[in-house]
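dumping the sequnces here before i forget
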Amino acid sequence: MKQYWLFKSEPTTFSIDDLVKSPRQTTCWEGVRNYQARNFLKSMKVGDLGFFYHSNTDPPAIVGIVQVVKAAYPDCFAFDSKSRYFDPRSVPDVPRWFLVDIRLVKKFPRALSLEQLRGINGLEKMELLRKGSRLSVQPVRPEEWQRVEGLLQDRKMTQSNPR
DNA sequence: GCCAACGTTGGC
DNA sequence: GCCAACGTTGGC
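..and the predicted 3d for all of it:
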């Protein structure tokens, strides 16, 4: 059974356009230093889908869809003392932090803002919409995924059939 | 094991 | 820029 996720990034750090421009439109998802988020990374499987979310920007929004193309493997940035993600507590024999690789599936023609998401029925329990939610990698329920996908289809119809 | 202090996240 | 919410650290 396919799993769904949400990947959060500040566009000033790494945006969907950076992903568009990446080789093979693929990148490793680096910098996760939160145990809960790490555990979600470790439970990802190749083929899982995820929303790409821009945080700390105006407006915060889901801007595209990505796919997991490589399952969790040790984060070597944590071993590199020159990296901003260096963590001396993580050593190659007992790695503490992990990465997955993701590839762009599509960038939305129009971003789906946090405000719009709050107006969608069926997303009431979505982790992203929870007050105080800060997880940079989070699971999305299949029914939540379908709701958003369905809305995107509707928008497409609206675009191609004006009036 | 508790919890205060602190640093970070991220919407507004 | 503000500040609430959260995770982590470290003294005790």
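Chain A has a mean pLDDT of 91.
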